[in-house]
Amino acid sequence: MVIFDENGKIDILALLPGELEEQILLLGEKKFRAGQIFSWLHVKHVDSFSEMTDISAQLRSKLEDSFCIKSLFEVKRLESCTDNTVKYLYELSDGNHIESVLMEYEHGNTICVSTQVGCKMGCRFCASTIAGYKRDLTSSEILRQIYMTQKLSGRKINGAVLMGIGEPLDNFDNVVNFLNIISCSQGMNMSLRHVSVSTCGIVPRIYELAKLKLGITLSISLHSTNNKSRSEIMPINDKYDINELIKACKEYFKTTGRRISFEYALIDGHNDSRKDALELYELLKGFVCHINIIPVNKIKERDYHSDRKAAYRFQKYLEELGMNATVRRTLGADIDAACGQLRREYEI
Ligand code: SAH
Q: Which of 35, 85, 93, 185 is the most core-located residue (most Cβ within 10 A)?
């Protein structure tokens, strides 16, 4: 994807191998140079042209004139004492802040990345949306979170979840470009089976994403079982209601063959009763999917509560109805690893 920065330079990290090749040929250079440069950027994760030691000084200076490399600066790091979760607060080149969280699972390290600065979606329980939306991240800024975090932590990252600050499907083109680059064999070669994209339910984009058949896991932030209860906590439901959303999910599964994961943030007294479980059963009956129960994470601006006991109780209700549900592991609880909380503290 060819995009220019404020100085008219091309964002080189956002270019796919073929696009970089075209640009290198336009500079009058040989094609193989593009492969070398791509590898410096996406395998060795350098953040300046001067580190590309097998490229001549003359070509490096030409590259400096035509391209920019987006950088991130580590502002703060919080390391969990209870598990290997590390949360990074990064500053972008325009002074905005975003968060990334590195988590350890049995199969390796997964990173939770941000896709926007802030968020427009207005979900009541979410810290990322409170101060509103500032801008979309470029695909290079999404990639950079992975490259920087891998470098700073010294831990190989083999999976990613787009569940940090922002709504990925509200930044569709940059997110798709990010997915294409992170999975390309000349770069990090991350399997898209290890990548989850989470959405609050922008229905037309779900259909669009299905057509691309990327092999990612689609996570839907459902959190409620009927329109009244969902609209109370998620304004997006007034635009695309729960029935339209489930219809789009069924189409997604039909087109891609990939099982959908439904996120269900449990809130005391709002969506955690046996009646809610029954309604969830009715809503998803016969649909091959997975339900992930998350006790809502308390944020200081709102009065929502839940706990793991309630989550296990709700899981039991669902199991009794024959539904497949897990309670999400709590990682980094001591460092408030839920999205948007660190940035909120920092910006105020
Ligand atoms: N905008 C996307 C992705 C970012 S949020 C989406 O809505 O899916 C990632 C997940 O965390 C979503 O399921 C979101 O609903 C959930 N979430 C946000 N704040 C939360 C909180 N305080 N407690 C529990 N889950 C929360």
A: 85
